[in-house]
Structure prediction request, 78 residues.
Amino acid sequence: MFPTLIGTVVIAGIVGYAAERTGFTHNGILSSIVICVGGAFLFYFLTIMFGIGFRAPGLNAILASVGALIIVPTHWRK
Prediction:
């Protein structure tokens, strides 16, 4: 369980950094990483508590990170 949590954080950080460097988002590197890690944590704990998610924890981390990057910045943008 603990290595999965650390892997989730690492994958979310990589996704946040890559999204910012490729121009997918324009939030800043640190904010994109924080958004991705937050979304991945949320989905990780939902997976543990309710069993929601896919089989592979890495796929859960990637999809949760991308989903958080899409939902969070566009929610506050006017």
